[in-house]
Design brief:
Layout: H1 7-17, H2 27-41, H3 50-53, H4 61-69, H5 74-80, H6 92-101, E1 109-113, E2 129-132, E3 135-138, E4 147-152, H7 161-169, H8 176-189, E5 200-203, H9 211-222, E6 226-231, H10 239-253, E7 259-266, H11 271-275, E8 281-289, E9 292-301, E10 307-310, H12 314-326
């Protein structure tokens, strides 16, 4: 409403976004909200700071919002930052698959494609819980990777106070549950681990750099099967890069046994998943099957999962893949 009656506020946003392109329609509004939150978290006198809002009345909110949008620090954030929610709760995707495959602790390399701060890589060190069917699963139940690698266009250094402030700004202020999970994941990531098991983050452009080559090298160098996981990556890539990334990953997955690609992405038609108790996000496994790459649905869940619904036959499929391709037994 503040923007609707104040054209100069819209001009601020238009100027800041003039030279930027976004693949997802929701990227701009989320970036505006995160930038405002970031400034408020670092300034107790900011018009939207909790210290100010706590004493304010609702009728004053449009004026406070207008003041915040005219903050001279805002345009630079809108020009240079990206929303990196680092939703560590999406790690349920790789966790339940690794469990069902029968993966031994330390017996596989985990790669997070589009990793942001890499918090999904340490989900096995955090006591976050999810409901899987009628059971409750904790991150501590996940088998621990022998190698942890994250790839991102701009990896977030979670040891930097400013970077952590940005990650916190990307969480809705009223979402206490997500905020607690973020803090627990940050603590786990910065915990001292043996060098060979500590997370490694690399600058990497999905769809442009040689992802298949990098994953192949990781497998050869580590001597471990590789589980490559991505969550909500496609919407953030330009169409050409998304198509190139898909081709590269299918080429990699089909190149040898011991290469598993997991995708947790929004599905075009969420209705069937909703009807079965799932959600709009589909977890799929892509793996070598003879001379081709086979893709199978595993589960459905929400954008920020607290539960997931396994598809019919998913557990049997995963156990079969784990045994036949990797020599793993059921956990």
């Amino acid at each position: 409403m503040a923007c609707r009656t104040r054209p100069e506020l819209l001009a601020v946003l238009a100027d800041a976004f003039a030279e930027r392109e976004f693949a997802a329609w929701y990227s701009r509004p989320l970036l505006v909200l995160a930038s405002l939150r970031y400034l408020a978290l670092g300034d107790p006198d900011h018009p939207l700071a909790m210290e100010v809002l706590g004493d304010g009345e609702a009728p004053e909110l449009p004026a406070r919002l207008a003041e915040a949008l005219l903050d001279p620090r805002l345009p630079e954030l809108l020009r240079t930052r990206s929303v990196q929610t680092n939703a560590s709760e999406r790690a349920i995707g790789w966790g339940i698959v690794a469990m069902a495959l029968g993966a031994p602790g330390g017996g596989f390399a985990l790669v997070d494609l589009g990793c942001s701060g890499g918090l999904n890589l340490v989900a096995d060190l955090v006591p976050t819980t999810w409901r899987v069917g009628r059971e409750q699963v904790s991150g501590l139940d996940f088998p621990s990777p022998g190698r942890r690698l994250g790839m991102d266009l701009e990896p977030v250094d979670v040891r930097s106070p400013d970077a952590v402030r940005w990650l916190r700004a990307c969480v809705w202020p009223g979402d206490a549950d997500r905020r607690q999970r973020l803090e627990a994941s940050l603590e786990a990531f910065t915990r001292r681990l043996p060098p060979e098991r500590a997370p490694e983050l690399r600058v990497h452009r999905l769809g442009r750099d040689d992802t298949a080559g990098a994953l192949g090298e990781l497998g050869r160098e580590s001597g471990l099967p590789v589980l490559a996981f991505q969550s909500v990556v496609r919407d953030y890539l330009p169409p050409a890069d998304a198509a190139a990334h898909e081709q590269a990953m299918r080429r990699w997955a089909g190149g040898a046994a011991g290469r598993l690609w997991l995708t947790l992405e929004p599905t075009p038609d969420p209705t069937p998943g909703r009807a079965q108790g799932g959600g709009p996000m589909a977890l799929e496994l892509h793996f070598r099957d003879g001379d081709s790459v086979r893709s199978e649905p595993i589960a459905r869940t929400d954008y920020h999962p607290r539960a997931c619904h396994l598809g019919p036959g998913a557990l049997d499929l995963l156990r079969s893949v784990g045994h036949a391709q990797l020599g793993w037994g059921a956990r």
